[in-house]
């Protein structure tokens, strides 16, 4: 059975100046998430997905029937009177109830009955936006009865100002080859001999299910897009996560700057999402670079948003055993969770949660395959040279100066062992990665450390 996806944990008692709410029930998992779906090559995460540590998450109805949010967002304490708003206002999802007069489901049904009784031919089409908000929400709800993962593949264009060129269309990717083979199979199955008729084969499904609902008009996009972002599982490579966040959360930096301190914060950023990050079997050229992969922006958005579920996984392959995948399991430590043997996640580490919520980190870089260290030895005149020792993969956590502890003096500082610093923050007994900790430095000092 595929793992379940937990809901967003509530904030601490001191974060909003009120007692912490009751833990909400878990959200449903994506059916068949660990098996090939829709031509995808990506398997889901090897454990439960830790969501962002924000406000408690309402049900689907709260993500649908709510007005468009204003410049400020209300909290659960703002009840009563005209200022009473639901939590769904924070995401902007769903249909805004028309004021003061609205159409009801009975009106639409009565209209159809009148057409039938009059004997006139029924109209061939019906305007979706003419439906009452309650019925449109039922359509949105039906969309995700059978969700499928959408795998994003980056395909950069050639250096040209033209939108599409013959050369650009001629380039192929591994995913294109799979699609071409599938199309050929469908074409062969649909071919009929002279005088014979064969049943048509199954049509190829889209990799972006129901994305068209966000492209119809502004009103429909405003209603459906937040629901789409929260329910649609997006799969992408680890190297593409930064560009994805810049594209689909373009105002994240501005929203982060507006956030108050956790003790004074009234609401988190109104972002929702459902992301699975793929870790390739072989590190790419970017992952082997000296800089590694920067993911601090992901942690900032995840830890301070309304509800973003994020997990790590592998590209789908046969005989994959997630319980023994130490690399993917270690990456969950960045979310403050430890992956247990039954694929569930432990409770979130409180100290690491505070670090993420206060945005105390300047950088978090994942080095999957660091460059070999150069041995400072005298060159031998004869005989083969000994290869440089291979550096263990590591995660480099860099604190901002104002949040640095006294022992953090260098870009790569010596972690005190007696104080159990790593244990207290959930980074002890790592299976694959080493952990390095430091404080941000000037460029000259940083280059010297590298």
Automatic annotation (TrEMBL):
Q: Where is this region: Disordered?
A: 1-106, 178-208
Q: Can you name the source organism? A: Pyrenophora teres f. teres (strain 0-1)
Locations of Basic and acidic residues compositional bias?
A: 76-90
**PANTHER family, alphabetized:** F-BOX DOMAIN-CONTAINING PROTEIN
What InterPro entries is this protein classified in?
AN11006-like
Name of this protein: Uncharacterized protein
Q: Which residue ranges have biased composition labelled Pro residues?
A: 1-11
């Amino acid at each position: 059975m595929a793992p379940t996806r937990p809901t967003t944990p509530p904030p601490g008692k001191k974060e909003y100046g009120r007692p912490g709410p009751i833990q909400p029930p878990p959200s449903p998992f994506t059916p068949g998430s660990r098996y090939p779906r829709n031509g995808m090559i990506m398997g889901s995460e090897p454990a439960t997905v830790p969501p962002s540590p924000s406000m408690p998450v309402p049900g689907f109805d709260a993500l649908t029937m709510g007005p468009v949010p204003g410049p400020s967002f209300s909290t659960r304490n703002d009840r009563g009177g005209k200022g009473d708003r639901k939590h769904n206002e924070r995401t902007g999802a769903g249909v805004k109830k028309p004021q003061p007069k609205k159409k009801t489901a009975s009106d639409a049904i009565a209209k159809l009955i009148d057409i039938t009784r009059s004997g006139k031919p029924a109209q061939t089409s019906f305007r979706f936006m003419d439906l009452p908000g309650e019925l449109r929400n039922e359509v949105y709800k039906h969309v995700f009865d059978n969700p499928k993962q959408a795998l994003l593949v980056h395909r950069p264009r050639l250096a040209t100002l033209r939108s599409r060129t013959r050369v650009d269309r001629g380039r192929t990717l591994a995913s294109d080859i799979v699609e071409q083979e599938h199309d050929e199979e469908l074409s062969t199955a649909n071919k009929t001999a002279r005088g014979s008729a064969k049943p048509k084969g199954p049509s190829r499904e889209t990799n972006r299910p129901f994305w068209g609902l966000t492209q119809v008009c502004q009103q429909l996009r405003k209603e459906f897009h937040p629901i789409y972002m929260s329910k649609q599982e997006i799969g992408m490579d680890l190297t593409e996560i930064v560009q994805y966040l810049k594209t689909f959360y373009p105002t994240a930096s501005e929203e982060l700057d507006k956030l108050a301190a956790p003790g004074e914060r009234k609401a988190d950023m109104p972002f929702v999402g459902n992301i699975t990050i793929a870790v390739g079997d072989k590190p790419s050229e970017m992952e082997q670079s000296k800089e590694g992969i920067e993911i601090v922006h992901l942690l900032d958005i995840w830890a301070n948003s309304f509800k973003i579920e994020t997990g790590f996984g592998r590209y789908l392959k046969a005989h994959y055993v997630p319980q023994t995948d130490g690399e993917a399991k270690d990456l969950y430590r960045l979310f403050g969770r430890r992956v247990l043997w039954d694929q569930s996640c432990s409770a979130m580490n409180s100290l690491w949660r505070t670090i993420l919520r206060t945005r105390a980190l300047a950088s978090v870089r994942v080095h999957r395959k660091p460059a070999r260290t150069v041995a400072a030895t005298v060159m031998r005149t004869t005989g083969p040279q000994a290869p440089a020792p291979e550096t263990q993969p590591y995660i480099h956590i860099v604190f901002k100066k104002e949040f640095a502890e006294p022992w953090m003096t260098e870009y790569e500082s010596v972690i005190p062992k007696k104080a159990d610093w790593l244990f207290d923050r959930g980074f002890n007994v790592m299976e694959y990665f080493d952990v390095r900790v430091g404080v941000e430095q000037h460029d000259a000092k940083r280059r010297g450390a590298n």
